[in-house]
Structures are given as C-alpha cells and as structure tokens.
C-alpha cells in the first residue's frame, strides 16, 4: 500500500471509530450536563481523606459519588431548559452557537466523553500518589499507579448501574401516568400530578417507614443468626469464674456470639504467670446476652448476680464495660487490665443489640445509652453497700459506640468522680455528649486532636503513650482518659463537616494525617463518611485500631502499686501475640 493510499484511508478509519462511538452514545443517550457534573464529583471523591483506600473500595465510593453528580447535572439541565432558556433573547436562541450543526454536536459529545475518561485517569494517577503518602505514614505497602487506575473502570460500572436503576424507576413512573390517563381515563392534567402524589406517598412510606423498618428488621434477623454462631475456637468454660459455665446463672447458649468469645478467650492464671513472672489468679468475666433475660433491667441485674456468684467484689479491680452493638468487647483491652493485676480482676459486660456499631449508631443509639446507664448504676449500687476499705477499684470502659453508651451513665465529670475510680474511653464518636463538651471548652491554644482541659487536672486525651504525660502537672484521682487517633474517622465524623471547617483541619495536622487534605463544603463530609467503613482496615496505631495503646491507658487510669516499665514491656509483647492468635482463630 502506497503512502498516498494510507493517508486517504486514515479518515475512513477515524470516521468508522467516530460512528461506532456515536452509535454507542445514542444507545446510552447520556445527559451531558450530567456527565460533566459527574466528572467533577468523581474528582472530589478521590481527593485526600483520613485513611488509605484500595482501588476496589475507591471505585465504589467514586461510582456512587459520580452517580450523585450525574443526578445534580441532570437537574441543572432541566432547570435551564425550564426557566432560563425561554428567557434568553430570541436572537441568542436562534444563533449558531446555541444550535450548532449536527456534526459539530457529535464531535462535542465525543470530545466530552474522551475528556472525562482521560481526565479521570489523570486525576486517579495523582490520587494514587496521595494514597502512597498515607500508606507510608501508616506503615502500609504502597499502591501502584497502574493498579489504582482500576478504580476508573469500577467507578464507571457503578455509575452505569445506578443510572440504569433510575431509568427503570422513571419508566415505572411513566407507566403509572399512562395507566391513569389512558386506562382509567383520568385527564392528563390530573393524571400527572396524581402520579407524582401517588409515587411520592409510596416512596415516603416505603423508604421512611416500611423499608427502613424492614431493613433494620431484616438486618436484626440476619445478625441475630450470626449471634447464634459460635467460633470454632470458643469453648464453653468450665471454670466457675466465667459466665456460661455450668455454675453460671447466664446459660452459655444465651450469651450471643461475642459474649461466648468473651468468656471463653481469657488468659489463664498460668498464662498470666508466664508473662509476668508473678503468682496470678483466674480472671473473672461475667456477661449477659440479649437472650439471657427478658428486659434490659433484668439483664443488668443478672450481671450483678453473676458478680456476686463469682465473688467479684472481693477482687482488686472491677471493670464495667459498655459494649458495641453486637456485644463486642475488645480482647486486648480486657487482657491488658488482667495482666496488669495478675488476674485479680473482674470484668462485666452486657449485649444490647444484634446489630454492628454502624447500624446500632443509626437505630439503637438510645439502647447503648440505656444499657450503659443500667449496668453502671446496678453495679455501683451493689459496690456501694460494701465497706469502703473492702471495695475493689470500680473502673469503667467503653470503645466507639460503647464509649457513648458508657458516658450515658454520668451527667458530667463531677458525677464520674463521685461514682467510679477511673474511666478509659477509646475512639469516642464525635457525638459523645461529655467528650464534645470537653473539646469545646478545651484550654485556649490546645489542638482539637489532643486538647488539654483544665490543665489536665482530671481528664486527658492521647493518641500515643507520651501524650498521657502532657501537661506535666498534677493529675487527680480518679482519672479519666480518652484515647483518640488523629486519623480515626469515627472520632472526627460529624454532620457539621457539611458546611463548617473543623478545628482539626484548621490546626496543625496529626502525625498520620495527610498534609494534602483540605476542607471543602459537603466534599469533606462525604470523604470522612466513606472513611468510616475503612476505620479498622489499617495497622494498629492508626484509624480506629488502638492496639496496645490501651495498656498505656489503663496504666494511666489505674496503675498497680508494683507496676514497672519492664513488666509493661512483657505484657505488651504478650498482648501482641494474643492479637495475632485471635485474628487467626476467631
């Protein structure tokens, strides 16, 4: 083939490609203002956030974001056609710019699609660099740019799915109008608003009433089935110091999945002695599940009966735990206090929901507060009957939603100091009542991620062990500690992010927070909301994984008299070993 022939063939190939693209475009029939706004939303969704993301997770987030943007663009285009265009001068509406030739329109459409596709790839390449920066900060294996570009494919597929579902709904709506107008012979002027009212009423009832209730009912049923599951590594205890044992008032099969794990996976006296080199006792763990008693009040009373049965009030330390939604208690936190006190401890907890914390936060938040209040007050009432010199240290612990439920037992700092001997709250949600008040009234000049309140006289905040020493001044007993990472989205998520820049993004960033993250209205709220699903998928010491930092928290709140740095290190190593074992077997 000659060079002249080749040159004449090139436009033909280009024309065929263009024709193919246009046929696909006419089949899909996208709304181009929607495409442009979707591209903007896609770009926002890959901006820096608190936690690193895999390409798979980012693809889903970006796809949902772009679908929302597409809807916004379609709405803007409709508003333009409905209100703005008719008000333009007739000469403008008839101009060539407003009505370009068909071929020019086709070229503009193809150029728009290509710009969106290429632009998305360029933005993702930049986002991959932001991801690597975060992964290095958190000691994770850095992602590759080529691997991260798969986000684009998944994102486009997600957008296509959402738009397809919308078009199905639109078709159903039009069919409803047609049925009212033609089959029932209702005038169209009445049929259209009638269909709008009908669909709106059905949607409101479905989504706010029936569907929401059905969702939580199905979720509750589904997770109640999981509640009946028992890990192969969990064994019914035979020691009387555990709930679920033959002597227990709380039968093994009523404790729920998390409760059964809690009472079966306990460091033995022998294990504690091996780690500490000192004589140890069998730790006491008591637990009551949703099925252990008919009402929340009776569940709390059952725990007190279990504490009496196990002679828990004769131990050196008694810890009252408010669990997360499913009844989960962090094993590391429980073991840390047991190793510290040589097993001379009792830990009490209850279950108040079948749902995980995220769903419990939406539907069962009041249950968490009620469970925390009932258990703390029931245990305190029994504890207060003892002679002061014979009482164990009464400590309170809660993590995530558990900290919010635990806070519900108290009116404020004075109430805490009156009722208990120390508090450890880990990863508190931003909506925690007491935590929020302390953050808002923090000492001037101290950052939101690590505030100082009243010169650290009663309560302190820490993201690392050294933070507990700040300020270097008096710390009265009983002590209160909040552990909170700068990169924990559970701590920093708030509806206020929608339209208000938080102090933690206006001040100096935390040590594991990207310097590239900026606050944007709505965008930052969406990004931190997406991070909630990734909160536990990072190494310990970041996000919502606190690891052995809880040992330092307990050390600050209730240090035993014979505690030493060498002993602390041995316990820390043992806790890391136990974390690995639990991860492999639970």
Explain how this protein is built.
With about 575 residues, the chain is an alpha/beta fold. Helices cover about 55% and strands about 5% of the residues. The protein contains 22 helices and 7 strands. The protein has a 7-stranded parallel β-sheet, sandwiched between helices. Mean pLDDT is about 90; it is low at about 220-225.
Number of helices: 22
Strand proportion, as a percent range, falls in 5-15%
CA radius of gyration: 30 Å
Question: Kindly state the mean pLDDT as a whole number?
Answer: 89
The main β sheet shows up as: 7 strands, parallel
Q: Which term fits the overall shape?
A: elongated
Give the strand line-up of the largest sheet: 1-3-2-4-5-7-6
Counting helices, strands and paired strands, the structural category is alpha/beta
- Along the chain, the helix and strand elements come as HHHHHHHHHHEHEHEHHEHHEHEEHHHHH
DSSP, total strands: 7
Q: How much helicity do the residues have? A: 55-70%
């Amino acid at each position: 083939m000659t060079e002249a022939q080749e040159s004449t063939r090139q436009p033909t190939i280009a024309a065929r490609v263009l024709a193919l693209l246009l046929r696909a475009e006419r089949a899909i029939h996208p709304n181009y203002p929607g495409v442009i706004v979707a591209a903007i939303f896609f770009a926002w969704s890959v901006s820096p956030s608190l936690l690193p993301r895999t390409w798979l997770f980012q693809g889903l987030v970006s796809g949902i974001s772009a679908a929302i943007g597409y809807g916004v663009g379609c709405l803007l285009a409709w508003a333009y056609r409905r209100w703005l265009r008719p008000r333009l001068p007739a000469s403008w509406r008839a101009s060539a710019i407003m009505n370009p030739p068909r071929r020019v329109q086709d070229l503009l459409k193809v150029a728009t699609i290509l710009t969106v596709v290429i632009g998305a790839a360029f933005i993702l390449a930049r986002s991959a660099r932001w991801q690597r920066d975060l992964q290095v900060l958190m000691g994770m294996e850095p992602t590759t740019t080529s691997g991260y570009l798969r986000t684009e494919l998944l994102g486009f597929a997600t957008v296509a799915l959402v738009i397809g579902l919308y078009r199905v709904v639109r078709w159903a709506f039009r069919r409803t109008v047609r049925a009212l107008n033609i089959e029932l012979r209702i005038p169209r002027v009445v049929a259209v608003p009638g269909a709008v009212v009908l669909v709106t009423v059905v949607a409101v009832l479905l989504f706010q009433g029936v569907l929401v209730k059905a969702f939580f009912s199905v979720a509750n049923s589904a997770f109640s089935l999981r509640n009946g599951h028992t890990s192969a590594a969990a064994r019914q205890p035979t020691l009387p110091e555990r709930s679920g044992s033959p002597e227990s008032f709380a039968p093994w099969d009523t404790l729920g999945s998390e409760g059964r794990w809690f009472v079966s996976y306990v460091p033995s006296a022998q294990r504690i002695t091996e780690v500490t080199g000192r004589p140890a006792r069998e730790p006491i763990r008591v637990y009551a599940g949703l099925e252990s008693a008919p009402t929340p009040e009776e569940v709390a009373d059952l725990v007190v009966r279990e504490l009496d049965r196990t002679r828990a009030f004769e131990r050196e330390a008694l810890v009252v735990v408010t669990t997360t939604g499913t009844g989960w208690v962090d094993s590391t936190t429980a073991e840390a206090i047991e190793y510290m006190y040589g097993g001379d401890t009792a830990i009490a907890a209850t279950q108040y929901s079948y749902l995980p914390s995220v769903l419990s936060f939406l539907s069962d938040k009041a249950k968490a507060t009620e469970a925390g209040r009932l258990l703390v007050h029931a245990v305190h009432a029994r504890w207060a009957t003892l002679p002061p010199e014979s009482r164990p240290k009464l400590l309170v612990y809660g993590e995530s939603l558990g900290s919010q439920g635990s806070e519900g037992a108290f009116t404020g700092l004075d109430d805490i100091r009156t009722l208990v001997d120390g508090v450890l709250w880990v990863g508190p949600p931003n909506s925690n009542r007491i935590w929020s008040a302390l953050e808002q009234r923090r000492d001037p000049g101290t950052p939101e991620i690590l505030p100082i309140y009243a010169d650290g006289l009663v309560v302190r905040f820490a993201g690392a062990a050294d933070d507990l020493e700040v300020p270097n001044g008096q710390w009265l007993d009983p002590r209160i500690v909040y552990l909170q990472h700068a990169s924990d989205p559970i701590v920093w998520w708030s509806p206020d992010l929608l339209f208000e820049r938080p102090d933690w993004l206006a001040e100096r960033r935390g040590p594991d927070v990207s310097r590239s993250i900026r606050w944007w209205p709505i965008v930052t709220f969406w990004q931190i909301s997406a991070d909630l699903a990734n909160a536990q998928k990072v190494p310990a010491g970041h996000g919502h994984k606190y690891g052995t930092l809880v040992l330092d928290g307990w050390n600050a709140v209730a240090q035993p008299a014979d505690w030493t740095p060498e002993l602390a290190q041995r316990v820390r190593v043992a806790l890391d070993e136990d974390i690995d074992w639990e991860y492999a077997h639970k």
